[in-house]
Amino acid sequence: MDLSTDLYKRYLQQFANTPGWFYPQSAAIWDTLLSYQKGSKNVGNILEIGVFQGKSAGMLALHRQGEETCVFVDPAPLTEVRQRIEEAAPDAKCEYMQEMSQFLPRHSFVREAARDFRWIHIDGEHSAQAVSNDLALAELLLSDRGILVLDDFFSPGYPQITQALFRFLEATPGRLTLILCGYNKGYLCRPRAAHEYLTFMRTSLYSNLAKRGAQAVTVCKTSEPADMNTFGIIERYNDMDYRGPDWDIDNIYI
Length: 254
Prior knowledge:
Blueprint: H1 6-15, H2 24-39, E1 45-49, H3 55-63, E2 70-74, H4 79-88, E3 94-98, H5 108-112, E4 117-122, H6 128-141, E5 142-151, H7 159-171, E6 177-182, E7 185-189, H8 191-211, E8 217-220, E9 231-235, E10 242-243
Parallel strand pairs: 1-2, 1-4, 2-3, 4-5, 6-9, 8-10
Antiparallel strand pairs: 5-7, 6-7, 8-9
Helix pairs in contact: 1-3, 2-3, 2-8, 6-7
C-alpha cells in the first residue's frame, strides 16, 4: 500500500525548522501510520501529552480530519504553539490545555472520551511515576484501532521510561501490546488491532518510509511471534529493507 506524501511535504515546509526532538525518521514513521489510519477509515480524536514548541503536534494537526479534535496538553503556556498550528492548519479543530497530565482526570473530556482516541503521544514528564500515570490514562482513552506512542522508549538517557512501560504491560495483560520501536519511540495498540498493523508494516512500512526520505533504515523482525511480535527500525543493515531472525534473516514472521 503506497500512501500519499502530500501532508508530509506540507509538514516539512511548515514545521521542519520548529525546535524540538523529533527525528526525521520518526516523522516519516508517524506520517506513514497516520496516513494508513486515514486510508483504512480509522477515525478518532488525537492527544499529545508534552508539546514543547509543537514540532510533532504540527503533524497531528495536519492529519486531523472531519469532526476529530486534537488535544494538546503541556504545563507551559501554548500560545506560540497555537499560533504556529493555526497558521499551518487553520481548519484544524484543536484544544490547548495548560495542565499537568496527572490532573487530566479532573477534566470532562477524560470522563467522556473513553476509547475515543486513535492516536496518543506521551512525551510529558519523564519520571517513572509520571509515565505510569500517563500510560494508565492513555489505556483508558485509546480506541480499539488506535496507536499509542511513547517517547524516549529504549533511550539510554531515560531508562526508567522503558522499565515503566514493561511493568505496565505486565500489570495489565491483554490491554496493550508493543508492535514497533525505533528512533526513541515505542508504538503500541490493542491486541486485536495488532495483526492489522503488523501486516501493514510487513508489506508496506519500508516502501512508505523510503518515499518520505527515510530509506537509510532497515525494518527488523528478529524473532518468532510467540517470542515477541514487535518490529524494530534501525540504521541501514547490509543494504536490507527488511531483516528477519538471525537463523532465517530473509524471512519475516508475524
